[in-house]
Amino acid sequence: MKYKSLGRTEISVSEICLGTMTWGSQNSESDAHAQMNYAVEKGVNFFDTAELYPTTPVSPETQGWTEDYIGSWFEKSGKRSEIVLATKVAGRGRDYIRGGEGADAKNIRLALEASLKRLKTDYVDLYQVHWPNRGHFHFRQNWSYNPFNQDRDKAVANMLDILETLGALVKEGKIRAIGLSNETTWGIQKYLTLSEQRNLPRVASVQNEYNLLYRHFDLDLAELSHYEDVGLLAYSPLAGGILTGKYVDGGRPKGSRASINPDIGGRLQPLQEPATKAYLEIVARYGLDPSAMALAFCLSRPFMASVIIGATSMEQLKTDLGAAELRLSEEVLAEIAKVHRQYPLTL
Description:
GO terms for molecular function: oxidoreductase activity. There is one protein chain. This protein has helices at residues 29-41, 65-77, 105-119, 152-171, 185-198, 220-228, 257-260, 272-286, 290-300, 314-322, 330-342, and strands spanning 3-5, 12-14, 16-19, 46-48, 84-89, 124-129, 175-181, 203-209, 231-235, 304-309. The protein is of the alpha/beta class. The protein has one domain (3-342): NADP-dependent oxidoreductase domain (TIM Barrel). The strands form two sheets. Strands 3-4-5-6-7-8-9-10 form an eight-stranded parallel β-barrel, surrounded by five helices. Strand 1 and strand 2 form a beta hairpin. It is globular, with a radius of gyration of 19 Å. The two termini are 30 Å apart.
């Protein structure tokens, strides 16, 4: 396992981060504890969660359970100091989370205090804004995304409010670093500019979707990441399991994500099947595991701070963590590039 600095902070994170969003829905508390034990044994020091979790499905009845499970593991294992812990405050729109008001001074403080209580800790290493309060194109909203009806002054004022609140929480010792999630190039750069102008905490990372089928980050976001040292925390590196091949030709295994969420949040579309099959052909030619190849590709990207994996079984977790030992050959990378040129945007 390799480790990287998180942005310009002194925080060092494993190149694979343990995702948690199925803990409390598809996974029990004992499952979660077993996953954390195994991941730490294999060198993972980075866990990512959110006040919203679990998902698959998202539910007001289970909201917060994931953080509860992590907290009980900290209490049981005594390993809080060994873990870089990341969690998130929800953006606007989930009515059952503080009326759906989103991230602002009041709601950030309320969210963090509730998270700290569930997590049984007095600080979070990385605190992230889960999605912007203003409109954005993530979560397959690119089809209806319209920035032209947004109020710039209102958006910037909210960003400054968020930064000032996070800055105060850093001074109070409740968070160590700040991050964004599901953000755009303009959004990240505006946060960075406000930080410099107001001497406020600097964004260390951005957690956006990235995988072989969804490589939006390769363009302007990659440039920003390089010049500004804002690393990517890639979520859905297997495209919700699509890249494993389990869903080709209409497959819907019992207990899989698609058996609960039929289109996997809009990801499972006819256009992605030819690309998925092309990547599976590369896997077959070179004797690779499909999950391992997809994850190893993400790990090879120069802007990657950490790849967030999620597993509903120990078998999946072992395969995914094994990707840390895999380095793709130039021949495999060339074949991946060829498929990407043929199918550049499938999700």
